[in-house]
Fold each of these.
Amino acid sequence: MSLRLGAHVEQNDPLAEAADRGANLVQFFLGDPQDYKAPKVAYADGAEALKVRAEAEGIDLYVHAPYRLNVATLNNRIRIPSRKLLQQTLDKAAEIGAKGVIVHGGHVGEDDDPEAGFDNWRKCIERAELPVPLLIENTAGGENAMARKLERIARLWDAVQGSGNEYVDRVGFCLDTCHFHAAGEDLPTVVEKVVAITGRIDLVHANGSRDAFGSGADRHSNFEEGEIDPAEIVAVVKAANAPVVVETPNGDHGQKADIDYLRSHLK
């Protein structure tokens, strides 16, 4: 089985990071993931050089949107800047030839109607320009999250598909193994269930979990050191048949070991 395999890396020189891990795919931020500042390319030679060199080296680039983004919220002071920053991130990702932008599903307040959050997603996609694919990622915790549980993902997907955006086919799904484990969704059946909802999986975040099933905690671990059976992670990757980003810690038994583990078990 031949899949594109890579990791989340530092943004200053993602191509060197790819070489260090033996990867043909990398994901990174464009700026501070905890800020609303406009995205920027940290690569010293600029966006065009990064695009050209990545293509020459056969490295696929993915961009993760800032964590602060929440286009679902009813709070205007968060939702409006979030929409703006998401569009800026999509546009900047296009400049480097990225294969997609990954964004978390977000949430509404504890006492808010989740239907309002789904409608905010609809409005976001309705108005968005999509120069590259936008991949919505399932999330680990939050009782009023838009993309934690499968039934919420189904409502979110209905809303997005009803946006009327002529490029809505560029909105895809990113499946995170740690997040579904933390959300209390069974990994052995989750790919089939997601595809039944969305019709697609565009990217897999292959991560172990430091915490127990259903914990709601978003804490990634390396494959052989966490609470998820590594065989289940491999099975998800096989079933999804999509490019893979490893977002595990990069310590002594780091990302390269996890990439190598996947590669050896996907033969």
Note: The longest strand covers residues 171-176.
Amino acid sequence: MQRQNFIDSANAIKDSLSTVWIKAPDPNRPNLFLDSLISLYKVENLDFHSWASKFQKKSVRYDAGSLRSYRETWVIAVVLFLVLFFAVIRFFFPSELNTIVYAFYSNQALSKVNKEDTLFSSWPFIFLYLLFGLNSGLYLYLSGKYLEISYPAEGFKLFIYLSAVVVGLFTMKIIALRILGFLFDVQRLVREYVSVLYLSYFNAAILSLPVVIAFSLTSYRFAVIYSYIGIALIIIIFLIQFLRAGANILSNYKFPKVYLIIYLCALEFCPLIILFKALGY
């Protein structure tokens, strides 16, 4: 009985304490969180400039995009022209084009070309030489744009300038070879070597045309791949043909090897160094 009375009295004390310490909050008490939001976002006297200065400006906007780079319209037009130009050469001069391609791989076809000596004075020669210059000029222009090299000219004028530099430099090389052949009475030797050079130029233009087309039509993030492909292709073509011509010359002619070294430095490596230095590479 006493135990029951003790429990009842304890419950009564608990209920009385709950009414003292646990009760509904005062509705008129200050709300610190709400007051802080009001002070932060309230515009005093419509002074939006002062209000905006409270907020820190973001240095980096994650939702801000970057401008997308577009190719120039004339580049597409030049690519179409090069494709159509090669198609015209292939359509009107199929036998001459086949001879040039076969002579690049066959010594027998090369000997036939050297004996006739008429292929390199015909219209296919002029057209393929022009194709080589335009193709090389467009490749150098696209590489320069990727490397962000600055030139006095821009756009289509720069493309024409680069093409003219390539054609002019290699033409001067051929003229210098012809003059040396006349002075040293080795016209036949020079004629054979010049034929190999022409074949190298023309086949380089044909084989690098797909690379230039892909370079001009795909994204700039693939530019480094096409640059290396183009450089590797040109190096392989000229190295193979030079070794081919060198083996032929050394087997038929006897002369001091120092002359060969002087020739390589003066008329092979030097024009390429001048070309890359003049173009800013």
Note: The chain has a mean pLDDT of 76.
Amino acid sequence: MRWDNLGDNGVATETALFGTDAVTTRTFDTPEFRGITFHEVRARSIVNRVPGASRMPFEWTVNPYRGCTHACVYCFARKTHSYLDLDTGLGFDSQIVVKINAPELLRRQLSSRRWQGAHIAMGTNVDCYQRAEGRYRLMPGIIEALRDHANPFSILTKGTLILRDLDLLVQASEVTEVGISVSVGFTDQELWRTVEPGTPSPQRRLDVVRTLGEHGIGCGVLMAPVIPFLGDRPEQLRETVRAIAEAGATSVTPLVLHLRPGAREWFFTWLRRHHPGLVGRYERMYADGAYAPTWYQRRITRQVHELAAEFGIGPAGRGAPRRTPAPAPAPAPEEPTALAAAAEQLSLL
């Protein structure tokens, strides 16, 4: 495993994020963590700058974890595990890097005279409310630091564990801008169990949207991914948007499945096992790269927006507060984020 020379952008540098002597490896023999290895590290930096070329609506991110027990077969962040010489398939799902000093490091960086109070986005690489957070409890300290410095932030999650920190989120929202988005690409139970096996069910995630709204925190939904030939039938899109609207979402932003290196190989392995008849269609659809054809993306986006209007919700506005990921055109950065992918697709409109 490569630790000593890893920089914050995933490439070898002279100034690493952490050294070998700062890594402790643990396993826990409990049902929820069986088969999972945690690599506890003391990070040297926790606030990471988004590459300028990405043109995202924020410049800074915080990612307290690497790897994700959600085990989504399509996860774009799988490639980041290869920077540590870890497997991007099962290894990404079961070898979790935990930056145990994230809260104290963030508080220190926010206190720096050089910090100007810029918006910080979380959940843009792997989910900060994945299962590991239940044990390590890094997010309360992170939110407290942001609250105490009145620093604006946003969170994108598939995890219901965010409700544990509801009081902190309410407190933070009283002093700064807080944006929450929940990812729900579909409500089909069979599809969910096979492509997102480690996540809470779509309905439980929509319960998060509802609960946040009841406590005065508007919550948008990133409808991602819309999976071609498996989750894109008109009746499936209608059911998903209807459920999103009933949960009280402030907006819905559709995102078609994209298959970058790392995720592509793992997704096709899953596809050959579960839907071998679709392999040829996927090979043709994604023959030109990581993204579905423009015509297909536009069709899905149009259908979802029409349904959203019918059910009384709309897409995220370009001038709206950061309650959901804001659309903006962006070239693919070296280590892409979910928000970058959403922005790239929405620039088609």
Note: Residues 3-17, 317-349 have pLDDT under 50 and may be disordered.
